[in-house]
Amino acid sequence: MKDKIFWPSNSSEWTEVASSEEQGLDSDKITEMFEFIEKNSYNIHSVIIVRNGYLLTEEYLYNSQLLEAKAYSDLLPPKAYTGPIFHDQASATKSLTSILIGIALQEGFLDNLSQTLYEFFADIWDPSFDERKKNITIEQLLTMNSGLIGEWYPNYPRVDYPPADCIKLALDDVPLGYTPGEAGKWEYSNEGPNLLSGIIANVTGKSTEEFAREYLFTPLGILEEEYHWPHDDKGINYGAYAFHCSPKVQAKLGILCLNNGTWDGTQIVGKDYMKDATTVKTSLSKGEKSMEYGYLFFMMDSPLEGYYMAGSGGQCIYVMPEYNITVGFTAGGKIPKEGYEKLLLDYIVPFAKP
């Protein structure tokens, strides 16, 4: 097996290797995986598998069946699909926002993760805002420990989705469910990552998309036609959801994380930040269920080791450092909770030869 890392350039030049065996995987098992997906009606729209930077599998599906074209079906619903290579990443966008916070630290736009909301939004702060929000830190936003409630709470404000002004919504309208930073508390919220996007725009003088293009996408060879990032009426790109991209963009983000923020010899994201982002900061358990969370990254469940970016409907990017493998999925829901884990455990990981 080739153990040298390949750094893919422009996506058009990044093509599948002749066989998965070149990178120690079993192509027959991958074929069986797609047969399993069809038999069990997993509503998966795309699968991409990369090892050591080499593209092993890039497949697109409709009605759980493989398509001949390397593109999404135009029969997919509009929310998921915005073009032949675009797919909504839903809340996997949050992990992208985390990566960009790490870059802002690396480039000196941010001093540290203890900086507070009021430092960035003092010019729009109104006395009517909950005073406790002033001291919410960047780290609390990254770990879902800010106290901001989720949209499923009955006292969450009724607003159109996506919001026209996501910063005002977070600062003014969305209530706190507990004191920011309270030990042992974790509340999944879209407002935190949206605020992080606002912070990036504030400190860099660029939109989050412009900042990402300069400091992340361009260095990784990601072209503008490979992604789409909606923004609110104030020009703030949504940091919690709605980023659309191709499977190759999914994979490149995974490769960057897999290599501790380094891309072909250049440190894009600080190594220490990436380590912190992808290791456990919060651990919760309820009965037999448990959840471990980093900086807007989820940790994988045993026996799998690694972490992943996750969005509703089945948008996931898995990073498994032990095997140097990244696997990206897009889907339209109807995936059992254990579905992706089963695909990884039964068809990919056991056959990853060192």
From TrEMBL:
Transmembrane segments: none annotated. Pfam families: Beta-lactamase. Residues 49-331 form the Beta-lactamase-related domain. SUPFAM superfamilies: beta-lactamase/transpeptidase-like. InterPro entries: Beta-lactam-related, Beta-lactam/transpept-like, Diverse_Enzym_Activities. This is Beta-lactamase-related domain-containing protein. It comes from marine sediment metagenome.
